[in-house]
Structures are given as structure tokens and as C-alpha cells.
Design goal:
Strand order of the largest sheet: 1-2-7-6-3
Bound molecules: zinc ion
Order of helices and strands: HHEEHHEHHEHEEHE
Low-confidence stretches: none
CATH architecture of the largest domain: 3-Layer(aba) Sandwich
Number of domains: 2
């Protein structure tokens, strides 16, 4: 309640423009019209993508337009202030309590070298504040064991090879018997998420649902 008031006061003192239409934004960093247009959760058709390990996967926005621009700014220009805006798209698109059966939220990790180079995992910056607001437990339980080439540079066949065996569960004792929500910034082929789901289930997870901020899947 107090936080809502503080946010309202801050947005009056420091008004922001909506990154999509340049109109004045509300305290969530988007104008209401663009928020409504951009944040629309949709199920990814897992069978079409041949992703057999995930139990479901939801994407909150299309990987295009302002969402794409802001994610790129985060990853390649290290503009971390956009994380909050992205996290608000999650609030808008996902009904509270949708993940009530989830025991822990696990982010797709970056390789230690890339994390060092970038200074942050954009997925954690986007999803962690949302998970906290939802009362969900955040768990860094995966590690990328190989520094893989960025997936978007590769063909589908190369992507599969690239991801195979690239992940490891670091804390299996916290995964066994649990329902996991696996989160990532972008869903493209889904191969990365599926590979993470495979190792989580090998470690004893009973359910792995995927949640991506943006989907570039066609
Ligand atoms: Zn707008």
C-alpha cells in the first residue's frame, strides 16, 4: 500500500515516457494502452517445436517492437533500468496465483564468463522482482557448464548440439520432488529451456513449466 503511494508520487515527480508510443507512462513505465497491447500471455505450442520435457510454456509478449529493443539494450548496452518495466509486463499478463503449485522459480543461467562480462543475468533482473511480488521462492539451481555460442547465431541442428549437456543442476537436494517454474528472457527455438528441463527432471523435479518474457517463435 505504502509502496503503491510511493510509486505514484515518484511517477509524478519523475514522469517517464512509454517506450512504445512516447506518451506519458504510468508508474509501471508503460502507458495503459501499450501495456494492454504488449502484455498478453500465450501458450507456446510445445509439440510443434518438439519440446518433450517441458510440461507447458507461456510467453508474455512478442519478441518484436519496443520489447525487443529494450531487451537488446539490456543485453548489449547493459541498460539495467529496463528490467523493472519488463517485470511489470509479467504482472499485467499473468493472473495472480497462476503458479500457486510452484515450489521454486529457477532462471536459465548464463555461463560464468558471460555473467562476468555483462555483470548481470538479465533474466534474474526481470523475473526476480516479479517472483518476490508473487511470494514465489527464487532458486539459482542451474549452471551453464560450457560457454556456448549465442543460440541466434546458429541453425536449429547446431542449437540442439550447442545446448546438449550444457547445463547442470547445482543443488539437486532442493529440486527433488519439486514443481519448478523455469524462466528465461527470450523463447526462440525452446531448445535451451527444454535442455534445462531435462536436467531438472533428471535431478528429480516432478514438473517443469516454462515462462518466457518474450517469444520469437514462429
Ligand atoms: Zn504507450
Amino acid at each position: 500500500m505504502l509502496k503503491d503511494w510511493l510509486e505514484a508520487i515518484l511517477s509524478l515527480l519523475f514522469p517517464q515516457r512509454c517506450p512504445a508510443c512516447r506518451q506519458w507512462a504510468d508508474s509501471h513505465g508503460w502507458c495503459q494502452a501499450c501495456m494492454g497491447k504488449l502484455a498478453k500471455a500465450s501458450q507456446v505450442a510445445l509439440a510443434i517445436h518438439n519440446l518433450t520435457s517441458l510440461d507447458e510454456c507461456l510467453a508474455v509478449a512478442d519478441y518484436s517492437g519496443p520489447v525487443q529493443r529494450l531487451i537488446r539494450d539490456m543485453k548489449f548496452r547493459r541498460v539495467t533500468k529496463y528490467a523493472e518495466r519488463h517485470s511489470r509486463l509479467l504482472d499485467h499478463a499473468i493472473a495472480p496465483g497462476r503458479y500457486h503449485e510452484i515450489d521454486a522459480v529457477v532462471p536459465v543461467p548464463l555461463h560464468a564468463e558471460r555473467l562476468k562480462e555483462r555483470g548481470f543475468n538479465q533474466t534474474a533482473l526481470i523475473f526476480k522482482p516479479w517472483a518476490v511480488r508473487q511470494g514465489l521462492i527464487w532458486l539459482d539451481a542451474l549452471e551453464r557448464t560450457r560457454a556456448t555460442a549465442p543460440q541466434w547465431e546458429l541453425s536449429l541442428k547446431e542449437r540442439r548440439k550447442n545446448s546438449k549437456g550444457a547445463f547442470k543442476v547445482t543443488r539437486p537436494e532442493l529440486i527433488i520432488g519439486k514443481s519448478i517454474l523455469l524462466v528465461d528472457d527470450i523463447f526462440t527455438s525452446g531448445i535451451t529451456m527444454n535442455e534445462c528441463s531435462v536436467v531438472l527432471k533428471q535431478a528429480g523435479a516432478i514438473k517443469v513449466k516454462g515462462l518466457a518474457l518474450a517469444s520469437g517463435a514462429r
